[in-house]
Design goal:
The complex is a heterotrimer of chains A (about 100), B (about 400) and C (about 160).
Chain A lengths: L4 H21 L3 H25 L7 H31 L13
Chain B lengths: L1 H5 L1 H11 L6 H38 L15 H10 L11 H19 L16 H9 L1 H12 L3 H32 L4 H6 L4 E2 L3 E2 L6 H17 L11 H4 L9 H25 L16 H22 L5 H28 L4 H21 L16
Antiparallel strand pairs in B: 1-2
Helix pairs in contact in B: 3-12, 3-13, 4-12, 5-6, 5-7, 5-12, 7-8, 8-10, 8-14, 10-12, 10-14, 12-13, 14-15
Chain C lengths: L2 H20 L3 H21 L3 H25 L12 H19 L16 H9 L3 H22 L5
Helix pairs in contact in C: 1-2, 2-3
């Protein structure tokens, strides 16, 4: 018995929901980044699954999008973590609920 | 006869699998994998045991003493004694340590090293785990080492461990760039990420004498030296053993480990060393190809392990000869010299390819490498910065 | 691509993801995050996109996870515990999950078996990257350089 596309979509939906949970309900900035990353990974999983189950195109479009999204995620992490460090240096906290001032 | 000896182990595996002929496909697949895994582990654990005693003997000779010679003939049973000693030691876990992370770190570090060994072709048709992106696989599993080292340092809850782990990660990240970029020219020239394809691209002999190994081209030679130095750093060997410098920070990230967990770290370090040397042999030294055409009757795996043992001897030799570098010198060397030289190798390989891969290409790529090398040496010359030492005394 | 392997990997991935989202200690969460991405890479392997799986392990375990643990160490004051947990997030996440599952289960064309595997070689990906996708590739290169410089400027010590 081989798995169908549906199983992968369900797994990806669950991963997306867990990522949303982390992004919405935690206070620490790094947790929020982790949550966003999980949602992105769920999207990647969907791309690869649709590429695998869809009609075979001459260009592996789904794979390409996944590769580019991984590269962009790496850029996102460098900037995101640099921002976390900069904010921590300034406000001495990484709790996003306490970052409620526009004045730096 | 020659062919039989060459394919001896492949035949043996086929014979073992033929015993299982009646079973379904997936059983055969699992059996085949298991045979590969056990052979790999058996060979490299034996090599590890041998290496641990030979290293001490060679170091002893370098330092004008005998080295271990009490246990068994010529001290060759020393690893058995060491193993028994390690096994019966008490396993101490610090009270404030993060138990789970502390426990997982040695396992993860050894797993990464063993997985990395899997993609190297040890002989004709003798790649345990042949995968399309083999070189990428090697580096992907190799990159888990950094996380494992960090887990060891953080899980021990000890300042020495943490400092050692930070130093280790800093140097590993810095030297991973040259390590990766020196692989690029080979991948570019072969246009494949598969170790088997890289090895077979190095078959044959120029003028019937000089083997077509990449180390005999100027860019290949430069890349090989850079790769070897980066490999020394990645496996935390002297002269780059800053993270575990005994005289400064006890044993770095391994400070809080004892008994068999410490032995696992030791094992992982050696397996990592074998893996990096094996990849260096595959990428630059022609893998399992014989150095002379009239030696081709010798089985391919013999040549692979011969080259591997020469590289390992150089590792020990370097350890016995050079003092430890300073952390800042090492970082400067990585970013100011290694990285530009690594990029130069990529350019030189492209020049070599586009000028026809012959003598002309050889000379042109030599020119490229030489120009950058001389420029960098002039720019990074530190001799004139040294002034006569001024002694200051407490008053 | 057997269903057993698929379910095992799914359990591993989702458990690690849940742990990464809910664990109190930041460092444990970061390590679970790394485990999650190993699971996702295993999915890519199952689906026949080995290259993407390897890139995923390489980028996330080798670079991003190390960056995260470094950041956690540098912002050390509240490294130990992150107690706050908003339960409203759970409601939203459950609602989204329910909606997605409802949509997936009610779309019947999704119940298809995979077509026979055509191995995707690294060479094909390289060719595609160098022909049809060369502009996106260059853009990603520029983006990565910009991110590198930007993050360096962000964390640079301010001179008084």
């Amino acid at each position: 018995m081989t798995p169908t596309l549906q199983i992968f979509l369900i797994i990806s939906a669950a991963l997306f929901a867990i990522g949303l949970l982390a992004a919405l309900s935690r206070h620490h900035a790094i947790f929020i980044l982790i949550g966003i990353e999980m949602m992105l990974a769920a999207a990647n999983l969907n791309f690869i699954a649709f590429w695998r189950f869809g009609p075979q195109a001459p260009q592996p479009v789904g794979v390409m999008i996944a590769i580019f999204s991984i590269a962009i995620a790496a850029a996102e992490w460098t900037v995101g973590l640099a921002m976390v460090i900069a904010v921590y240096r300034h406000f001495r906290t990484t709790n996003v609920d306490q970052l409620n001032q526009l004045k730096g | 006869m020659t062919d039989f000896l060459d394919q001896l182990f492949v035949r043996a595996k086929e014979w073992l699998l033929s015993l299982l002929a009646g079973f379904p496909d997936w059983v055969l697949q699992i059996a085949s994998s298991l045979i590969n895994i056990f052979t790999l582990l058996g060979v490299f654990l034996t090599l590890f045991a041998l290496m641990s005693v030979l290293e001490r003997k060679i170091l002893g000779r370098i330092q004008n003493r005998y080295g271990p010679n009490r246990v068994g003939p010529f001290g060759l049973l020393q690893p058995v004694a060491d193993g028994i000693k390690m096994l019966i030691k008490e396993d101490i876990v610090p009270a404030r340590a993060d138990k789970v992370v502390h426990f997982l770190a040695p396992i993860l570090i050894a797993a990464g090293a063993i997985l990395a060994l899997g993609v190297i072709p040890y002989g004709r048709n003798m790649t345990p785990f042949s995968i399309d992106g083999g070189v990428l696989f090697f580096f992907a599993v190799g990159s888990t080492t950094e996380l494992a080292v960090f887990m060891a340092g953080w899980g021990s809850n000890n300042k020495f461990s943490m400092l050692g782990a930070m130093r280790a990660i800093a140097q590993m990240i810095s030297y991973e760039l040259p390590l990766l970029i020196t692989v690029l020219p080979v991948v570019m020239v072969v246009s494949s990420l598969t170790p088997d394809a890289i090895v077979s691209a190095q078959g044959g002999y120029t003028f019937g004498v000089v083997p077509r190994w990449f180390v005999f081209t100027p860019w290949g030679f430069a890349a090989f030296i850079l790769f070897f130095v980066s490999g020394l750093v990645e496996s935390n060997r002297t002269p780059f053993d800053v993270p575990e410098g005994e005289s400064e920070i006890v044993a770095g990230h391994m400070t809080e480990y004892s008994g068999f967990k410490y032995a696992t770290f030791f094992l992982a370090e050696y397996l990592g060393m074998f893996a990096v040397s094996g990849l260096a042999v595959t990428l630059f030294l022609g893998g399992w190809h014989a150095p002379f055409s009239f030696f081709e009757f010798v089985p391919s795996y013999f040549w692979f392990f011969m080259k591997l043992s020469i590289l390992l001897f150089v590792y020990v030799w370097v350890r016995g000869t050079l003092p430890r570098t300073r952390a800042d010198q090492m970082m400067n060397f990585a970013w100011k010299f290694m990285l530009p030289m690594a990029f130069t190798c990529v350019v030189a390989a492209a020049v070599w390819h586009y000028t026809g891969r012959g003598l002309r290409g050889w000379l042109w790529s030599l020119v490229v490498v030489a120009i950058v090398y001389v420029t960098l040496s002039i720019l990074l010359d530190t001799r004139r910065k040294f002034a006569p030492r001024v002694y200051r005394f407490a008053e | 691509m057997s269903i057993i392997a698929c379910i095992l990997v799914a359990i591993f991935t989702l458990a690690a993801a849940l742990a990464a989202a809910t664990l109190q200690k930041l460092m444990h969460a970061a390590l679970c995050f790394a485990a999650t991405f190993i699971g996702i890479a295993a999915f890519f392997f199952l689906l026949g996109a080995e290259f993407v799986g390897l890139v995923q392990v390489f980028v996330y375990i080798g670079a991003v996870a190390v960056l995260i643990v470094f950041t956690i160490l540098l912002t050390r004051r509240d490294v130990d515990r992150d107690r706050g947990f908003k339960w409203s997030g759970v409601i939203v996440a459950t609602a989204v999950f329910g909606g997605l599952i409802w949509a997936i289960l009610n779309t019947h064309p999704l119940l298809i078996a995979p077509p026979p595997v055509q191995p995707l070689t690294v060479k094909q990906i390289g060719n595609a990257l160098m022909t049809n996708y060369v502009w996106p590739l260059l853009c990603v290169g520029v983006l990565l350089t910009a991110a590198l410089i930007g993050s360096l400027i962000l964390v640079m010590e301010e001179k008084r």
